[in-house]
Amino acid sequence: MILKRRKKVSLVLGGGGARGITHIGVIQWLEEQGYEIDEIVGCSIGALVGGAYATNRLQELADWMKTLTRAQVFKLMDFSNPRYGLLKGERVLNTLHEVFDDVNIEDLALTYTAVATDLENEQEVVFREGSIYAAIRASIAIPGVFTGVSVENRFLVDGGVLNPLPLNHVSRKRNLVVAVNLDGMPIKDKSTTPPHFTARTLLMESYYAMRRRLSALMLELHEPDYTICVPHNAAEIWEFHRSAELIDVGYELARTVIKSHS
């Protein structure tokens, strides 16, 4: 089909650690092509990148991310009581405050939704109003990594726990829906050697398989117009020092997936 320029887009940004920097490249390509993103739905890193875009600070976020080295990423880690999470996350978000200001979601120029998880009740929690900082902080609270957030007697963690690709929260149904799935199938090693699973790799591969299945189910139930799949082994969770490369990956994936089918 032929798409008209300035076509309005609902952009769904999944969770997945540093792989989520590819979201920046996807947004850059869409804007260059003249698409109008007037809705963003995100969880975890998707909520963060989407929040930067919604507050007109995406370029500042990209520029900062590109400067990060391995050592600087480590310095951003503020260790906490291991009972509640390895990291507090405050140092990261305080740094991000220097990149974009906190505003109320309802005052944004576009529709913004961040998704977190109420762990005790096993329910999705949707933020469509109030502090965007608070919404992002809850949405990125990876269990065992960042400390969770208590909100109105609920203990909130990363939205990707229940829904790593929150397509079900798109509200602008007439928009072109573009989903960025950070749990794409891995790039296979071409070696003929059978895979060797250590205890750690077995645990991680099982976790990734579970996430891929959750994302696949969401794609089946709420089929978007375009799905940009980022291989889950494109980057490890903390490889933010590769941000420049990952932005380019997102840009090229968007161009390949959308332009080739337009």
UniProtKB/TrEMBL annotation:
Residue ranges the record marks as coiled coil: none
Pfam families for this protein: Patatin
Motif DGA/G, residue numbers: 158-160
Domain of life according to the entry: Bacteria
Keywords: Hydrolase, Lipid degradation, Lipid metabolism
Residue positions of motif GXGXXG: 15-20
Domain PNPLA: 11-171
Active site: 44, 158
SUPFAM superfamilies in the record: FabD/lysophospholipase-like
UniProt motif (GXSXG) ranges: 42-46
InterPro entries tied to this protein: Acyl_Trfase/lysoPLipase, NTE, PNPLA_dom
PROSITE patterns: PNPLA (PS51635)
UniProt keyword annotation of Signal present: no
Keyword Lipid metabolism: yes
Protein name, entry field: Patatin-like phospholipase family protein
Originating organism: Sphingobacterium chuzhouense
